[in-house]
Amino acid sequence: MSLVMPEPDASVLARRADIVRALRSIVPGEAVIDDPDGLRPYESDGLTAYRQPPMVVVLPETTEQVSRILAWCHAEGVKIVPRGSGTSLSGGALPLADAVLVGMARFNRVLDIDYEDRLAVVQPGVTNLAVTRAVEDRGFYYAPDPSSQIACSIGGNVAENSGGVHCLKYGLTTNNVLGVEIVLMDGEVVRLGGRQLDPAGLDLLGVVVGSEGLLGIVTEVTVRILPRPEGARALLIGFPTVEGAGLCVADVIAAGIIPAGMEMMDRPAIHAAEAFVQVGYPLDVEALLIVELDGVAAECDHLIDEVAAIARANGSTTLRLSADDDERMGFWAGRKAAFPAVGRLSPDYYCMDGTIPRRRLPDVLEKMRELSDHYGLGVANVFHAGDGNLHPLIMYDANIPGQLERAEAFGNDILRQCVAVGGVLTGEHGVGVEKRDLMPEMFSETDLKQQQRLKCAFDPKLLLNPGKVFPTLHRCAELGRMHVHHGALPFPDLPRF
Questions:
Q1: 364-375: per-residue pLDDT in tens?
Q2: Calpha distance 428→426 (Å, rounded)
Q3: C-alpha triplet 160, 161, 166: angle, nearest 5°
Q4: Is 310:255 a contact under the CB 8 Å cutoff?
Q5: Are residues 222 and 118 in the same domain?
Q6: Sheet holding 119-122: strands in order across?
Q7: CATH number at residue 119
Q8: Which residues form a coiled coil (predicted)?
Q9: Domain boundary at 80, 103, 126, which?
């Protein structure tokens, strides 16, 4: 492992048997796992390049159990790593050798569906796709749809602020969550938001969504459900150059058209996806756009004509319109299978996640080609093109010494380029451990310390998911110190608490 994680606390490891015994008194039965074979499935998440068996795994099934686990660990100074389905691609659920991994898979029930208020109340272990399955018979669905939606959990979506192919029009997780129940590190159970559209007070819900397990463990989520649009059609558009496809994306948005989804794949990704699902992707193009328009029939027809004209103006060579819903879903099946499909091209791949201004897409792709030559590693590109979210898949072989390190360096240079052109380090996968050491590329030391002060407000002992997000985690006491000038505090007349 090239990644440096916090050194395990020997005093905690020495108490392992007592910790296991205490957890079994809270969660009886087989829900506490401490044998080596039982721990192995939890040693990594979707970022499989990094592995570390946890000290112990506990699988609670009630909010009370989560509260008691966290309160006990808080009192005893034991670290906690929350885990959903383990599909995180940034190492957000990577265990620590001296931490309790709290798996939320048993929180798997849909608690309430309110069609009048268009919401569903679910436990965090419910999978993303299961929410849509629960409401589709009444013509509703849950809009955010990550490619891993068949497996990823709503709790993990909240932690990482996940997106998906339809987030361009309908928003990320943060735009579709109305409320959460969250257990803080000291065991306190707090509700943020709820069934109402706009709760009063500070937007603490917005703080929790995307907090990557640093602030608490979510035990219930209230999500927005939407009625299915009257109709939806998808265009499959091929281009002789990636640059032409990128310019088409920018021109579609500039024309005021907001598709339900707009995805791009380059030649390696196209060929891998077509071999995997065989949906009829054109194989003689360098880039492929999938553009979905939805709404009433007249609106769809009009927008299809507009997008087709823009595509032709940017040099498209093929254009295919879905004839029905089955064909439309076939178009998306290839895109959603692109990540596993690339596994046919390489023994291993490193999936990156950065976001750039749409107009800079040709520049960044050219830079990627240069980096690919420099590092001697192939790359297949899949994009949420409409919002500039890139997912380069760097191909390598972990069995060849040095290739993982080259893949990491290649990925880091891609993310540095994203920031250099005015973008950000992540669009939806989160920072986790993957981008942790790149945070200073985007944030100043003052920025990072302010973010850490927010963590300290929720987790003063820094026990929740340590080693993630922040390249250097200061103690809360250090961040709370006041500057003393010539022996005098600032504003000496103010009371100090």
A1: 988 999 999 999
A2: 6
A3: 130
A4: yes
A5: yes
A6: 110-114, 119-122, 217-224, 177-183, 189-193
A7: 3.30.465.10
A8: none
A9: 103
Q: Residue 258 sits in a domain of what CATH number?
A: 3.30.70.2190
Task: Provide the Cα torsion 138, 144, 146, 149; round to 10°.
Answer: -30
C-alpha torsion sign, points 322, 324, 328, 333: negative
pLDDT tens digits along 57-89: 999 999 999 999 999 999 999 999 999 999 999
CA dist 176 and 421 (Å) reads: 29
What is the DSSP pairing of strand 379-384 with strand 389-396? Answer: antiparallel
pTM of the model: 0.91
- Is 177 among the domain residues? yes
Q: Is 116 found in the same domain as 211?
A: yes
Q: Are 227 and 140 in contact (CB under 8 A)?
A: yes
The domain tally of the chain equals 4
**Is residue 161 located within the same domain as residue 89?**
no
Q: Is the residue at 148 inside a domain? A: yes
**What is the DSSP track for 201-250?**
SS-HHHHHTT-TTSS-EEEEEEEE-EEPPSEEEEEEEEESSHHHHHHHHH
> Residue 242 has which token pair?
């990636």
Indicate the DSSP class of residue 481.
Answer: P
Instruction: Give the C-alpha separation, 408 to 413, whole Å.
Output: 9
